[in-house]
Amino acid sequence: MADQVQPMPSASGQPDAPLVEGDAGSKGRFPERGKPVITGINRVGLWSLYIKEVRRFLKVQTQTIWAPAVTTLLFLVIFSVALGRGGREVLGVNFPTFVAPGLIAMAMMQNSFANSSFSLLSGKIQGTIIDLLMPPLSEGELMTGIVAAAVTRAVAVGCTVALAMLLYPGVNLAMAHAWAVIWFGLMGAAMLALLGLMASIWAEKFDHNAAVTNFVVAPLSMLSGTFYVIENLHGVFQAISRANPFFYVISGFRYGFLGQSDIGDAAHVAAAALGLLAFNGLLALIAYRLLKSGWKIKN
């Protein structure tokens, strides 16, 4: 028939195969409908999400990095003047040296939570969450990208706070156990990043997120032994403090600088390090299941 389109011959003289043979489910030059094209880890997509999140907080670095450093330095000055007079020593060091590692860890955790809790929540409120859900990223890759960016911000804040504290007289940040500083710093940042991600999944407006920050994160941070050792507390309150995961992050982080902490000896610190790893694994599993279910995201 003259009205039928004939396939064009290829360079070898044979006609080209049609783009799709038969129905949509048959094999052709394109993959079957519904069959994933990207298998394994989408490295390009994961890296793109990570860079997007990092650039987001770097655009306002005055607010996301430098402001926390100034605020934490003010905490150091106020508590050192109020509680550190007369050469007061805690764990064998002067009070500013004792409180400085705890303030660094606290700033890292709070900013990690702030970063990860903003991503999905802002998308839900502004209607741009489709930009996170439509790309070919699995739930694990989405979680990894957001958490990694939050940990990056936490590390940047921690380094900035440490540099600011070196300007304060009497502060000594020489590390006794570098592995503890790195491990507990990263574990604390990852823990709050996962908590922030779960908070952003649950929250429907910024007030909900602020409630978690003010009534959960801030109290747990302040009551975690940042400014004191729990040995000074009553037995009941010591038990409550030991049930607080923030306590192990801050005390373990302090152990990396001072070589001692109120967790206990080196064996107890190592046990706390493994305990935080297991706890973060549990949080990651919960966050993954929430993303997988699409609860408050896709409905």
TrEMBL record:
Record-annotated ABC transmembrane type-2 domain positions: 59-294
Keywords: Cell membrane, Membrane, Transmembrane, Transmembrane helix, Transport
InterPro entries per the UniProt record, alphabetical: ABC-2_transport_permease, ABC2_TM, ABC2_TM_bact-type, ABC_2_transport
Compartments where located: Cell inner membrane; Membrane
GO function terms (MF aspect): ABC-type transporter activity
Predominant localisation class: membrane
Membrane protein topology class: Multi-pass membrane protein
Keyword field contains Transport: yes
Residue span of region Disordered: 1-31
Cell membrane among keywords: yes
Entry's transmembrane regions: 65-83, 90-109, 142-168, 180-203, 209-230, 239-257, 269-291
GO CC, alphabetical: ATP-binding cassette (ABC) transporter complex
Entry's family note: Belongs to the ABC-2 integral membrane protein family.
Protein name: Transport permease protein
Native source species: Erythrobacter mangrovi
